[in-house]
Amino acid sequence: MTTRPEAGDAMLDVMMETPDGGTVKPSDFRGRKLVMFFYPKDDTPGCTTENKDFTALKHEFAAADTALLGVSKDPPAKHQKFIAKHDLAVPLASDTPAESDEDGIAEALGIWVEKNMYGKKYMGMERTTYLVAADGKIKQVWRKVKVKGHADEVLAAAKAL
């Protein structure tokens, strides 16, 4: 069983693919704060709202010296369509390891969990947000996030850090 990192722990440094074919990992943001928000699936109502909310506040996060990174298991091509369709300005990354036997960052963080919908069990992303300090240490964790008002709450925490 994976240990779920908490405030005070170092953010795990796992490589993810960006929609443009590049790569990104949390340590790329050292020297400034980072908000990593993990969401279940592109183009679903809650995930679309969450991405739009963070996009709307992107400049305020930048003014607070805080980078944003949205992460899901969707492949880069799907992220490209999602970004274009909703005019998103927040960078996205795909938690899809190159090797099929390799765990992604969601598994390593313990947020790729068994879910249950209408009696059907499946594996899915637990909507979770991490505020990471400039030194790479996790400062705050929001688990089982409710989307409404979440981006504003995270912005307030980033400004206070």
From TrEMBL:
Gene Ontology biological process terms in this record: cell redox homeostasis; cellular response to oxidative stress
Gene3D superfamilies, alphabetized: Glutaredoxin
E.C. number: 1.11.1.24
Keywords linked to the UniProt accession: Antioxidant, Disulfide bond, Oxidoreductase, Peroxidase, Redox-active center
Record-level Gene Ontology MF annotations: thioredoxin peroxidase activity
UniProt keyword annotation of Disulfide bond present: yes
Record GO cellular component, one term: cytoplasm
InterPro entries xref list: AhpC/TSA, Peroxiredoxin_AhpC-typ, Peroxiredoxin_BCP/PrxQ, Thioredoxin-like_sf, Thioredoxin_domain
Active-site residues from the entry: C47
Span of domain Thioredoxin: 5-161
Matches recorded under Pfam families: AhpC-TSA
Keyword Oxidoreductase found: yes
Catalytic activity reported: a hydroperoxide + [thioredoxin]-dithiol = an alcohol + [thioredoxin]-disulfide + H2O
Subunit structure: Monomer.
Similarity section: Belongs to the peroxiredoxin family. BCP/PrxQ subfamily.
Biological role stated in the UniProt entry: Thiol-specific peroxidase that catalyzes the reduction of hydrogen peroxide and organic hydroperoxides to water and alcohols, respectively. Plays a role in cell protection against oxidative stress by detoxifying peroxides and as sensor of hydrogen peroxide-mediated signaling events.
Protein name: thioredoxin-dependent peroxiredoxin
Taxonomic lineage from the root: Bacteria, Pseudomonadati, Pseudomonadota, Alphaproteobacteria, Sphingomonadales
